[in-house]
Amino acid sequence: MKLTKINKDKSYHWYVLGRDPEKPQAIIDTNQYLVVTANKALIMDPGGIEIFSSMLAAVVKICPIEQVTHLFASHQDPDIISSLGLWDQALPNATLHSPWLWEGFIRHFGMSNISYSAIPDGGESIKIDGVQLTFIPAHYLHSSGNFNVYDEEAKILMSGDIGAALEPHDAPMYVEDFDSHCDKMRFFHQRWMPSNKAKSRWIERVSKLEIEQLCPQHGRIFRGDDVKRFLDWFDKLEVGLVED
């Protein structure tokens, strides 16, 4: 599994873990994100059960496993959090932050030791070693209970399925040609995003944030001017469509 540091802050670091060449070919490729401070760490959308061993091996290259005190699941999909039962054995003292709506569903993946911190619909902020992370509502994009993670200091938005593209595991980590990348995103957004109203509300909300990197759970990361290009493209896209 490839490890890429995506911020240059000296006091704490963001990593993306993905592009795993050893994952089963029939499994959708996913990006997992890790924030590491001096004493703690948070894994965002830690992934499916089938990549747990690769994820665990990658994480311990960055920090001791006992340093991982927090998990985040943007919603309930198996590619997001079906590895929970295995993390539950590896992280006996961690907390999972996830939408209140999905607690009864997510616990089916196995959760005896990790505690569940239910995020209210309006979102909230947490501090990890003084690093503030804000859970931004992104409901119905595509899940009815769904959140992004925003780091104001690093100017990073972990956007979950928003901005996703379905690509092979050896695709570049960053968008290099926005116009050609649109073709890789269109079907995903039109089919999995059911509500133009929810889309517009999310765009209005995140347009007020200072974002230097927009980091989806599938596909490539947007940075610099491509963040605004994506928001403009998404704003014009009609979603909730099924081709006959």
From TrEMBL:
Residues 29-218 form the Metallo-beta-lactamase domain. It comes from the Bacteria. InterPro entries: Metallo-B-lactamas, ODP_dom, RibonucZ/Hydroxyglut_hydro. CDD domains: flavodiiron_proteins_MBL-fold. It holds the Pfam family ODP. This is MBL fold metallo-hydrolase. It comes from Thalassotalea marina.
